[in-house]
């Protein structure tokens, strides 16, 4: 007679740390040593914060230490190349990529040290960060339609700031410029913080940036929020409409982060890594910690993440081509 076990019991066993150490198949005892989570930016930034949140919980899930390895430089491409081309494709090095390397850089750079589509295998989407359109209080506008009308009446006179040329905030404003058929002047900054400082000072008049960095200034009345550039209203600012509700559904610009490994990584190891990451990202602690910094923990299948990357490549490729943006 065959023994029968409750499905919940089987699922719990598969998702326990012991399961990762004793699973049969080609993955063997993976993981049986520390794992490196590579990040393409310095400590203290959003990528690093998200990576350390994931690494701490994932260490408990797999029963091995998950170490955050910051390899800053080249807009995230140094860390990406390390995982794609240098580290062994054995699942012990994986990369938390921003949208830049996977969806924006292929259109912005004539040459990259790796081909994101060929050299990586998607594992899961991990974090979403909503973007928001804000203006300086001196602008006499109450919504996006009024902003577009003002920009049309003053072509080339409204100046917007971004966190850098080719960044998601830059492209988000460009998508609004295209959708509204308006002429704006771009001032790129070396990061979001200086862009916000100049916006508060009135040196630039509008921007689209991550909700977390803008929220305190909106709450204090120092900036006016016109719309969130994401698919749903934000709990922290429920009165602020989405871009779709404001009349511009094409302006959808979540900043996002996802996990990839080298394309030669065996599928059974990718599957085990995916299982560990999904349990990590769905844990209440990780969700609460990310919500606390204005982000959202998410998870997908590898196939869903691959399709998402392709859709982002297509969407932002059109914006980049129309705006004629290039980076060296």
Protein model, in words:
With 328 residues, this protein is an alpha/beta fold. It folds into two domains: 7-129 and 255-323, Bordetella uptake gene, domain 1 (D-Maltodextrin-Binding Protein, domain 2, 3-Layer(aba) Sandwich), CATH 3.40.190.150; 131-228, Periplasmic binding protein-like II (D-Maltodextrin-Binding Protein, domain 2), CATH 3.40.190.10. It has 13 helices and eleven strands. It has helices at 7-14, 17-22, 46-62, 77-86, 99-108, 116-119, 144-153, 168-180, 192-200, 211-219, 267-281, 284-292, 302-323; strands at residues 35-39, 66-70, 93-98, 120-129, 131-135, 159-162, 185-188, 206-210, 224-228, 255-262, 296-297. The longest helix has 22 residues, at 302-323.
Shape-level CATH architecture of the largest domain? 3-Layer(aba) Sandwich
Terminal Cα span: 67 Å
Q: Which radius of gyration do the C-alpha atoms yield?
A: 21 Å
Poorly predicted sequence stretches spanning 5 or more consecutive residues = 1-19, 21-26
DSSP strand tally: 11
Structural topology:
Elements lengths: L6 H8 L2 H6 L12 E5 L6 H17 L3 E5 L6 H10 L6 E6 H10 L7 H4 E10 L1 E5 L8 H10 L5 E4 L5 H13 L4 E4 L3 H9 L5 E5 H9 L4 E5 L26 E8 L4 H15 L2 H9 L3 E2 L4 H22 L5
Parallel strand pairs: 1-2, 1-3, 6-7
Antiparallel strand pairs: 3-10, 4-10, 4-11, 5-8, 5-9
Helix pairs in contact: 3-11, 3-12, 5-13, 8-13
Write a brief structural summary.
This protein is of the alpha/beta class.
Descriptors:
328 residues, disordered N terminus, D-Maltodextrin-Binding Protein, domain 2, single chain, alpha/beta, 6-stranded mixed sheet, 13 helices
